């Protein structure tokens, strides 16, 4: 065989072999990259994204410590517990953390939608932002301490939140803080990432 004819064939085979090696190498790199990203996502906590400047409240991790501690109560701002139909009135959520420093909280208020409307939620703590969510028969409020706040946040029968409500009918109106519904929980988170499950209160108003 003519050596000059054989050399181009060898060169072509060599180039094809090099190209195949490069393709296999790139494929392996892409596979490793995808596996690494998938593993990294599985290892991370699921979190609620809050606006910049607020504390990021994480959902409960599998090994996160949960303690029965503290209390949430609800009371009328007015000295009496009466109100009128179609006239807004204010309620306060009062919290006690039993000495723990709190960086976040969730409350769930249960109500009858045909009896009352929850109009708004306002933080009574300047270093906490609040994020309300209204459902068909309950109202959820998440409070998150701002990252730039250095103020101590130990709750000692502290008014933390104001709710404005509008009664729709006359008679007894019961508003109750509940411990859990679906995946939501009434809780506090301290500065050591411990979950506090507080005792919960309720209020009954007489509407005319």
Automatic annotation (TrEMBL):
Name by which UniProt lists this protein: Cohesin domain-containing protein
Transmembrane regions: 12-33
Keywords in alphabetical order: Membrane, Transmembrane, Transmembrane helix
């Amino acid at each position: 065989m003519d050596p000059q004819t054989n050399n181009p064939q060898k060169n072509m085979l060599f180039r094809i072999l090099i190209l195949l090696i490069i393709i296999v190498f790139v494929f392996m790199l892409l596979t490793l990259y995808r596996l690494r990203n998938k593993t990294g996502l599985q290892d991370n906590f699921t979190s609620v994204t809050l606006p910049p400047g607020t504390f990021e409240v994480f959902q409960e991790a599998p090994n996160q410590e949960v303690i029965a501690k503290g209390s949430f109560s609800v009371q009328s701002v007015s000295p009496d517990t009466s109100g009128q139909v179609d006239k807004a009135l204010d309620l306060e959520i009062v919290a006690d953390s039993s000495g723990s420093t709190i960086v976040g909280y969730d409350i769930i208020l249960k109500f009858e939608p045909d009896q009352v409307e929850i109009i708004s939620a306002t933080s009574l703590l300047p270093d906490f932002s609040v994020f309300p969510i209204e459902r068909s028969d309950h109202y959820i409020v998440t409070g998150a301490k701002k990252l730039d706040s250095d103020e101590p946040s130990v709750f000692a029968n502290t008014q933390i939140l104001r709710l404005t409500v509008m009664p729709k009918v006359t008679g007894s109106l019961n508003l109750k803080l509940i411990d859990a519904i679906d995946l939501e929980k009434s809780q506090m988170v301290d500065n050591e990432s411990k979950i506090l499950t507080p005792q919960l209160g309720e209020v009954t108003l007489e509407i005319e």
